Amino acid sequence: MLLGDGMDRRSLAHEILSQLPLAQQTAAWGTLGTIKPYLGFDAESDVQHLVEAIAGNGADHGAILDVLTNRTSAQRQHITKGFQALTKQDLLKSMEVALSGNLEQVIMGLLKPPAQYDAHELRAAMQGIGTDEDALTEILSTRSNQQLRESLAFYQQDFKADPEKDIASETSGWFKEILLALAKGKREHYTGIIDYALIQQDAETQEPGARGGERTWISIFTQRSPEHLSRVFAQYQKSHGLEVEETIFKRFRGDGQVAMLALASVCRNTPRYFAEKLHNAMKGPGTDDKVLIRILISRSETDLLSIRSEFKKCHGKSLYSCLQVETRGDYQAALLALCRAEDL
């Protein structure tokens, strides 16, 4: 499949990898992430520490975490290249041998570029018995157009498969329509100009009691900017006396309903959406470790500070303290390192 500019996804993946050193210059201290560029970064020194940490019998988990949870993704890519140059071995494969369980999943996720990590999470969500609809919805509804293009490029490169065809074959109904619309990465960018006429048009497009129109709803929810949609939701409530979520409950069913509700939640408040997912992953007996790992890794350089704030605001306790209660051992240490600190 060709992208709009004629570059196939495999070529785009190589382009992304070639630009990773530039990312280190831009992923700086102004973000709301918990992981910042390590100012004393020395790739050669970090490589040596990792070589020593996995040498002999039993890996030094603490040393591995000390390096990898205190470096940005771009810095980790420099470490990966340095490890290959020094040892002639692949760092991911070496870690796969040295580690196991949830700790292994955290470290493997940290060592992949974000777009490649998302690609592998999408693949895992569609492999084996059953489909992880929640993971598909989360990734496709919370990434920017550029992030989606990069992720789908890695998907095609690493798995020699068309991600959109895989989505179409593994899902059905309105849920399939929603995911495919999101995968196209056509969400509009907010320019700062408020289009009141379009807000009114979108809010009035479908009367709550009318039949049909699901495809129009999907188009609006998957293509308009979050800033525009938040105003549409307000106008919809003003015009019809209903929150859009109430109409979604009536109009959609099953996975399609869950996906549309997730889109509404993301557009209203993305950090709160993730905070609720983290809370639900630790609610009741056991924990959904896949969700904890995926969110803490994928949001650690973007908005995890905001997610922590929303978590505390909504649940009266900190994300950090909940992770302390619900996880154990070196896996706990890894998640706490990404979370970074207690919120008092």
From TrEMBL:
Recite the UniProt keywords alphabetically. Annexin, Repeat
Gene Ontology MF annotations: acetylcholine receptor activity; calcium ion binding; calcium-dependent phospholipid binding; phosphatidylserine binding
SMART domains named in the record: ANX (SM00335)
Cellular component annotations (GO), alphabetically ordered = cell surface; cytosol; lateral plasma membrane; nucleus; synapse; vesicle membrane
Q: Name one GO biological process term.
A: cell-cell adhesion
| UniProt superkingdom | Eukaryota
- Pfam families with a match to the protein in the record: Annexin
> In its keyword annotation, does this UniProt entry include Glycoprotein?
no
- Give the family, as the similarity comment puts it: Belongs to the annexin family.
The record's section on PANTHER family has: ANNEXIN, ANNEXIN A9
Q: Know the name of this protein?
A: Annexin A9
Q: Which organism is it from?
A: Terrapene triunguis
Lineage of the organism: Eukaryota, Metazoa, Chordata, Craniata, Vertebrata
